[in-house]
Design a protein that fits this description.
alpha+beta; 4-stranded antiparallel β-sheet; 53% helix
């Protein structure tokens, strides 16, 4: 059951990503030859109009295959016959649709569970917060100039800036205060602490829920970007990275744990995970790497600036090399995921 749930979540997110490309392609008069879910040989398919819709053997990934996207075509409705701005809109639509999906799911989640405001609930003696005079009821507004909307953002900031001092702006009784906190290592918990605990959950009205749904998506975008920075700087290693196999396992474990509290709790937990994955997929696809949407956008933006398209053969070669490297990375990550399952 847990594998089915995980594959269903992946499928919904991937289909919506590809629908972004599909709908914008149609809106710009581009011929779509095939719209598929999965990779590899076709298991099932049918043709409606000019487009073939198919289900592939391997249940990871998907594609919106447009006429003339990767090769020359004399068809006036080919991708490369359209204006550079039309092509930019089609390529960017996939990641943007991921963020839209994350927002919709976040709104449903926030309406049902509320959101954690960054209000201090308890201050621990012997740590910087108590020494600075912070009290329960203080609301964290900024950390080193970064706006804070959820208490989770405090924890994330501490993770991405472990052991670093931070300038905290907080509010008490309508007045703003600023102090600098130097974290102290907690031997028992095995981490650095500023010395306060929060996480008060509140229920908002419609407008507040809409606003905090945007913040929810922003939170996961920031978390993804912060994690990528840690990967580049060595804060995390490839052993800490999970691919499809690892995510399926994590989703399955999360489902089995949450369903013990009822199907409603499991539904909300799956929504939470879907927000994370959808926002993550949007960010990853916007990375300026060959073969990804972000890599294609780089070439299109260069074309828009210089007013002339880069040699299609050279661009195709760059994307091909990038795809091979990406596939190699996926194999490494998948092997690592499988290895961790048996540890």
């Amino acid at each position: 059951m847990k594998i089915i749930i995980a594959l269903l979540i992946f499928s919904i997110i991937i289909i919506f990503h590809e629908l972004g490309h599909f709908w914008l392609a149609k809106a710009n008069g581009i011929r779509v030859n095939e719209f598929c879910l999965g990779l590899g040989p076709t298991i099932f398919g049918f043709t409606k109009g000019e487009t073939k819709y198919s289900l592939k053997l391997f249940p990871f990934g998907g594609a919106c295959m447009m006429e003339g996207e990767d090769d020359d075509s004399s068809d006036e409705r080919a991708f490369n016959k359209k204006s550079v701005w039309a092509r930019i809109s089609v390529v960017a639509a996939g990641p943007i649709f991921n963020f839209i999906m994350a927002f919709v799911f976040a709104f449903i989640l926030v309406c049902n569970t509320g959101y954690d405001i960054p209000e201090v609930v308890e201050v621990s003696e012997g740590y910087a917060a108590a020494e600075a005079g912070m009290q329960a009821g203080d609301v964290i507004l900024e950390m080193n100039g970064k706006n804070i909307h959820f208490y989770r953002e405090v924890s994330s900031y501490a993770l991405f800036h472990e052991g670093e001092s931070v300038e905290v702006t907080y509010e008490r009784d309508g007045e703003r205060y600023t102090t600098t906190l130097a974290p102290k290592y907690d031997e028992e918990l095995g981490k650095y602490r500023y010395g306060f605990v929060g996480g008060k959950v509140v229920q908002g009205n419609l407008l507040q829920n809409l606003k905090y749904s945007v913040y929810e998506v922003k939170y996961w975008i920031d978390t993804t970007v912060g994690s990528l920075k840690m990967l580049v700087t060595g804060g995390v290693t490839l052993n800490d990275v999970s691919g499809p196999v690892g995510l399926v396992d994590a989703i399955g474990d999360s489902y089995e744990e949450s369903v013990s509290y009822g199907y409603y709790a499991a539904f909300l937990q799956m929504l939470y995970i879907s927000i994370l994955i959808s926002a993550n997929l949007g960010v990853m696809n916007l990375l300026p790497l060959p073969a990804l949407d972000g890599g294609r956008l780089v070439f299109l933006i260069i074309e828009a600036i210089r007013g002339k398209r880069i040699d299609p053969d050279k661009e195709g070669m760059v994307h091909f090399v990038g795809l091979m490297l990406l596939m190699g990375l996926m194999v490494v990550v998948m092997f690592n995921d499988i290895r961790k399952l048996f540890l």
